[in-house]
């Protein structure tokens, strides 16, 4: 049986080699994004991380400020002056200098300090959660960019493969081995492959732009340095640990409880000690007065503030209860998703190997005239789908690892300390 001319066969062989990863590697782009691990080292520079750290610092500063004593009050006044008769001018004036110092003897200061420290603890945990969220966003954007690069490379390979198949079909049609309809179908496949390549290029450029913006990279990038899709997630930690979200809810409940104590202390009397110096201008003598003032909580006992503090603690306890239930379910779901994604990735890799071998055998069969062009198109479509499914499976694995890392309060693909 006659065979097609050598030129289409060489083109088809090159396409198969490219698709199977045997062709020479293309030169690397001039500018590549740093690896994921390198970007993690810059995590503290990203806006989301800086925001959480700043809020934690603010809460810590408020805790320090809560320890400050209330400021004293100094007042000055003059009596019996600028009147009439004997009281004209300042000859018989009495100058009074008053120093008043509020005293927190009912434990107001201690309650205030404990409440501020509890809020600082919660803010610190929220900052850690924010840092984990930023790391998860970075991992997601990095993986999306890598997947877009792989899909674009696959689209390039598919276009080269489809063109090679179309050339082979043209040669068969010229020899009368295939009807003219097959050539029309082949050229249509080439047009579709070219359109898919343009679409993949647009998605690639958009994904790389998002990566550059998220990671605060200088200038656009056209490649990435290192793979995240091929990286195996670390082993999940034991179930004995408390999820970070639960720890945050516990800290917020503690802070709400401390606010009840603060609200109660505000209902206690305000006590101040006063020292007064009176200077008699006419006799040029001085007299001193010591006094204590006590506020009487007759009308405002802060009852509404106490009720509000109790209500806020009940809300915090409800959030804590919900978070404990949700975190347990979310962890089981994340572990199941991660295991499923790992199995899906291994199955996809096996499918790619089988599809590559099927396509290679189909090419050989077509060249020998034992397999029709329709069967070749079918095996080519199966190979393309298998390669695309392998990318999707790895992307799903990254997503599952991001979800689990958030529950554990760590950066994705980094073991918990």
Automatic annotation (TrEMBL):
<keyword id="KW-0732">Signal</keyword>
<dbReference type="InterPro" id="IPR010131">
    <property type="entry name" value="MdtP/NodT-like"/>
</dbReference>
<dbReference type="Pfam" id="PF02321">
    <property type="entry name" value="OEP"/>
</dbReference>
<comment type="similarity">
    <text>Belongs to the outer membrane factor (OMF) (TC 1.B.17) family.</text>
</comment>
<feature type="signal peptide">
    <location>
        <begin position="1"/>
        <end position="32"/>
    </location>
</feature>
<dbReference type="InterPro" id="IPR003423">
    <property type="entry name" value="OMP_efflux"/>
</dbReference>
<protein>
    <submittedName>
        <fullName>TolC family protein</fullName>
    </submittedName>
</protein>
């Amino acid at each position: 049986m006659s065979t097609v001319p050598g030129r289409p066969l060489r083109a088809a062989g090159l396409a198969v080699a490219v698709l199977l990863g045997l062709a020479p590697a293309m030169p690397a782009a001039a500018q590549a994004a740093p690896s994921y691990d390198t970007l993690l080292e810059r995590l503290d520079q990203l806006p989301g991380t800086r925001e959480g750290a700043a809020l934690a610092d603010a809460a810590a500063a408020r805790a320090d400020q809560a320890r400050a004593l209330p400021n004293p009050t100094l007042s000055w006044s003059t009596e019996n002056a600028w009147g009439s008769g004997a009281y004209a001018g300042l000859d018989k004036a009495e100058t009074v200098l008053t120093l008043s110092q509020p005293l927190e003897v009912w434990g107001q200061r201690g309650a205030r300090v404990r409440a501020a420290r509890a809020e600082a603890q919660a803010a610190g945990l929220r900052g850690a959660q924010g840092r984990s969220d930023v790391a998860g966003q970075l991992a997601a954007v990095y993986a999306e960019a890598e997947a877009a690069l792989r899909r674009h490379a696959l689209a390039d390979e598919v276009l080269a493969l489809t063109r090679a198949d179309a050339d082979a079909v043209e040669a068969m049609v010229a020899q009368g081995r295939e009807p003219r309809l097959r050539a029309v179908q082949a050229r249509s496949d080439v047009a579709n492959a070219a359109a898919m390549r343009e679409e993949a290029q647009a998605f690639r450029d958009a994904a790389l732009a998002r990566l550059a913006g998220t990671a605060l990279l200088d200038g656009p990038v056209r490649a990435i340095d290192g793979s995240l899709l091929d990286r195996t997630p670390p082993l999940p930690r034991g179930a004995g640990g408390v999820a970070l979200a639960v720890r945050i809810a516990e800290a917020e409940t503690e802070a709400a409880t401390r606010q009840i104590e603060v609200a109660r202390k505000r209902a206690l009397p305000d006590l101040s000690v006063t020292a007064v110096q009176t200077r008699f201008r006419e006799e040029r003598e001085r007299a001193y007065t010591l006094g204590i003032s006590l506020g009487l909580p007759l009308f405002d006992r802060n009852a509404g503030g106490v009720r509000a503090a109790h209500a806020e603690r009940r809300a915090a306890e409800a959030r804590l209860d919900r978070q404990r239930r949700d975190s347990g379910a979310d962890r089981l779901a994340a572990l199941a998703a991660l295991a499923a994604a790992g199995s899906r990735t291994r199955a996809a890799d096996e499918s790619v190997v089988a599809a590559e071998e099927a396509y290679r055998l189909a090419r050989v069969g077509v060249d020998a005239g034992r397999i029709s062009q329709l069967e070749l198109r079918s095996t080519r479509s199966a190979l393309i789908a298998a390669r695309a499914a392998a990318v999707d499976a790895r992307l799903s694995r990254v997503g599952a690892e991001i979800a689990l890392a958030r529950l554990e309060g760590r950066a994705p693909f980094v073991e918990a300390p």
